[in-house]
């Protein structure tokens, strides 16, 4: 029974990896080079993957989706369809808005980055991955949408926009917010 269970877990892991590979080769999956750790620039950079769903022209607002978790993902695994976008329906976005969907480090399309140093998995570094996308695409007309743990990252992005690191978003939407007593693996208290 134990041997069957181990075989089943290995088979499930292979199928999940193959499913992620199929998702991550879609035509609207892009990457940006970002720092492994903003506190220690010496370790270098890595490729961070995101999905850019363009529904309108560049003047149309872009929603930047930061999923919950840690461990949640938002990159769309549905077939590309110009008439229906389940992610935008799920989050209640207008169909004509552009969307940037993100997966955190070591999750979904960023599973290839699972061997990063453990101390690089901080909320500040996750926010910096999103900053790299905003700067690469030169976003000015955008909305940050954070869900659950994503609200922590969205709050950090709000602080970075106030400091002038990135352009100010049109809005920051916090869904299923976490309080300021949530702690990550480094025992750091997250902002309210």
What can you see in these coordinates?
The chain is of the alpha/beta class and 192 residues long. The protein has one domain: Rossmann fold. The protein is built from four helices and six strands. The chain has a six-stranded mixed sheet with strand order 1-2-4-3-5-6.
Summarize the structure.
By secondary structure, the protein is of the alpha/beta class. The chain is built from four helices and six strands; from the N terminus they run αβββαβαβαβ. Helix 3 crosses helix 4.
Which helices and strands occur, and which strands form pairs?
Blueprint: H1 2-24, E1 29-35, E2 45-53, E3 62-66, H2 86-91, E4 98-102, H3 123-136, E5 142-147, H4 149-162, E6 171-175
Parallel strand pairs: 3-4, 3-5, 5-6
Antiparallel strand pairs: 1-2, 2-4
Helix pairs in contact: 3-4
Find the structural class using helix and strand composition.
alpha/beta
Assigned CATH architecture: 3-Layer(aba) Sandwich
Helix/strand order, N-terminal first: HEEEHEHEHE
Low-pLDDT regions: 3-20
- Give me the count of strands: 6
User: CATH topology, which one?
Assistant: Rossmann fold
Number of helical regions: 4
**Cα-atom Rg, whole angstroms?**
17 Å
User: How many domain regions?
Assistant: 1
> What share of residues is helical?
25-40%
The description of the largest β-sheet is:
6 strands, mixed
Distance between the termini: 48 Å
Question: In the CATH hierarchy, what is the class?
Answer: Alpha Beta
- The shape, in one word, is globular
Query: Order of strands side by side in the largest beta sheet?
Result: 1-2-4-3-5-6
Look at the structure and name the CATH superfamily: Alpha/Beta hydrolase fold, catalytic domain
């Amino acid at each position: 029974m134990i041997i069957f269970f181990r075989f089943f877990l290995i088979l499930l892991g292979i199928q999940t990896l193959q499913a992620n590979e199929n998702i991550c080769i879609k035509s609207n999956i892009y990457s940006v080079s970002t720092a492994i750790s903003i506190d220690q620039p010496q370790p270098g950079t890595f490729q961070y993957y995101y999905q850019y769903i363009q529904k309108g022209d560049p003047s149309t607002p872009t929603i930047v989706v930061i999923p919950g978790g840690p461990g949640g993902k938002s990159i769309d695994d549905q077939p590309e369809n110009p008439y229906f976008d389940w992610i935008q329906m799920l989050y209640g976005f207008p169909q004509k808005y552009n969307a940037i969907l993100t997966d955190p480090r070591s999750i979904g399309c960023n599973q290839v980055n699972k061997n990063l140093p453990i101390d690089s998995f901080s909320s500040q570094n996750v926010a910096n991955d999103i900053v790299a996308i905003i700067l690469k695409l030169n976003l000015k007309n955008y909305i940050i949408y954070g869900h659950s743990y994503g609200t922590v990252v969205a709050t950090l992005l709000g602080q970075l926009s106030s400091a002038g690191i990135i352009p100010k978003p049109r809005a920051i939407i916090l869904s299923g917010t976490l309080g300021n007593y949530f702690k990550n693996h480094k025992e750091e208290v997250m902002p309210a």
